[in-house]
Design goal:
530 residues, Heat Shock Protein 90, 15 strands, alpha+beta, rod-shaped, five-stranded mixed sheet, Beta-Lactamase
């Protein structure tokens, strides 16, 4: 009846005596236990090993982990045990095993059924059942095997737990290394986090990992559908932004949480927490960088504003003298006609220079607003009256979307008109081949919104980042001063409003100006108009 133990996976050499076979069997059990395989894998290997080595009609092994029992039967036999044969043999403890029908079956009554407890110290860790047909192996040998098997189970538990802890710590260590790399973007880190997940779980060969953040998702290299999932939420600043998920593509035995271990629940929650912390840190870094850039921008604007105000005041007097003298000479009848043409050019150039100074004064806020009740719709209609012909010549159709119930605001009508004209002129210049210009007004969260939209050439992200800088322009040298949008920004800001731009290269641009209905805390005082 004795089968060679060496037949099992080819790792045990054949022996001729029972004692040698039993000793080799015990050594093999211990070697299998030290591998630290998952429990169900270990039980399957052990039942196969015992069945073939002892020539049993069947072996069934049940191991308890807390209140859960894991069992393996080889082959799938059922053996009827007569009441007289059950005698004083130990029975499987607990209603759980009885309900599952462990070691209750049907078969030949000539076989002997042995049910033996597996005891480590004072704890019964499991039971094993043998169906031994015509066995000449004494009962003491089965007891001896059961003792060795109990020791192997204790070793397997310790090794499996150690193996899992090593995988978990390795995963957390690698995650910590990733989050310390400033050269990786948030998206690159999350992609690598997803790849770290499968090796940290019990069955990496069937494991798939996924990280979801703000509707974006990153998968482990083996992207497959899973039959069961373990999830942990990614919560950033009290808001649920995504999940970390681990799934098994194939069926796996039930453990603490479906097919997952309780320790794996702690691990996935720790990973989700680290992802949330890392996301919050990266977003905070971006916010700090954006704030620093805004401060630098504000400092540049303040410096340029001070410089512009000083230059404007210094240039006003000589420009006034040049303009006055040129106009006086033009009034002299004896002035030759050829000289008159040159004098007119001097007058035009001087007026243009004074217009630039006026814009500089507005930009530097040296000219206070003259406030009053203003209808933005009226400003749009009046402004289009002067610009309609230019739009028609350029092949541009104008569409008005004016809210007739629009409330008035407290503002400087002249400056709001300048905002409109500058934005419309920019839109016209952005549509050299013609197009469509949309002017819209409406209320928006307590503000009056004025939008100017075109379907022109659009702007790149780099250009958008600098359009409100003084003297920045994409036009030819003789076609723009680079002050138009800077003045618009200054006027809107002085009215306690905001201006935003939405643009796509090749599709168009939309400027949205929001002005508070209550208006700024300014009085209707006059100022230096430059």
């Amino acid at each position: 009846m004795w089968a060679s133990v060496g037949d099992v996976n080819g790792d045990i050499p054949p022996f001729g005596s029972r004692s040698e076979v039993l000793r080799e069997l015990a050594r093999t059990l211990q070697r299998r236990a030290t591998v630290g395989s998952p429990l169900h894998t270990f039980l399957r290997e052990v039942t196969e090993l015992l069945s073939r080595a002892l020539g049993c009609g069947g072996v069934e092994l049940a191991v308890r982990s807390g209140s859960r029992w894991t069992a393996c039967r080889l082959p799938d036999w059922r053996y009827d045990v007569l009441p007289s044969q059950r005698g004083d043999e130990p029975t499987l403890p607990g209603d759980e095993l009885a309900a599952r029908g462990f070691l209750i079956g049907s078969g030949a009554s000539s076989a002997q059924l042995l049910q033996l407890p597996l005891v480590v110290g004072s704890e019964t860790v499991g039971l094993i059942g043998f169906v031994a047909r015509n066995s000449d192996l004494p009962r003491e040998s089965y007891d001896w095997i059961s003792d060795r098997l109990a020791g192997a189970i204790a070793t397997q538990r310790a090794q499996a737990a150690l193996r899992e802890r090593v995988k978990e710590l390795t995963c957390l260590y690698q995650l910590g290394q990733l989050t310390q790399r400033p050269d990786l973007t948030l998206q690159e880190v999350l992609e690598r986090v997803a790849a770290l997940l499968p090796p940290a779980w019990q069955y990496p060969e069937i494991t798939v990992g996924r990280v979801v953040l703000d509707s974006q998702e990153w998968w482990s290299p083996e992207r497959r559908q899973a039959r069961s999932w373990q999830r942990a939420e990614i919560v950033v600043r009290g808001q649920q932004r995504g999940v970390v998920e681990v799934g098994y593509a194939d069926a796996a035995p039930d453990l603490d949480e479906g097919p997952f271990l309780a320790e794996e629940r702690k691990l996935i929650e720790a990973i989700a927490l680290q992802v949330a912390i890392f996301t919050e840190q990266r977003e905070a870094e971006r916010e700090r960088s954006k704030l620093a850039e805004q401060l630098r921008h504000a400092d540049r604007l303040a410096t340029i504003g001070q410089l512009a105000a000083g230059v404007a005041h210094e240039l006003n007097e000589p420009l006034g003298n040049i303009l006055g003298l040129a106009e006086l000479v033009l009034e002299v009848k004896e002035t030759p006609q050829a000289a008159r043409g040159d004098l007119q050019k001097i007058v035009d150039a001087t007026l243009f220079a004074r217009e630039i100074i006026r814009k500089l004064m507005l930009f530097s806020r040296q000219t206070p607003p003259r406030t009053g009740r203003v209808s933005v719709n009226s400003i749009v209609r009046d402004g289009l009256f002067f610009l309609q012909a230019r739009c028609a010549r350029a092949g541009i159709t104008v569409e008005r979307r004016l809210d007739e119930e629009l409330p008035e605001i407290v503002a400087d009508a002249g400056q709001i008109h300048q905002v409109l004209v500058n934005l419309v002129v920019n839109a016209i210049q952005a549509m050299p081949e013609g197009g469509r210009l949309i002017l819209e007004t409406r209320t928006d969260n307590g503000d009056v919104l004025l939008a100017v939209e075109d379907n022109g050439v659009g702007m790149t992200r780099d250009v958008v980042g600098r359009i409100f800088y003084p003297f920045f322009t994409t036009k030819e040298i003789d076609q723009g001063t680079g002050l138009g949008l800077a003045v618009v920004h200054g006027i809107v800001t002085s009215h306690k409003g905001t201006i935003e731009v939405q643009t796509t290269p090749g599709e168009g641009t939309r400027f949205e100006v929001r002005l508070p209905i209550a208006g700024p805390d300014t009085t209707g005082q006059g100022g230096d108009d430059g």
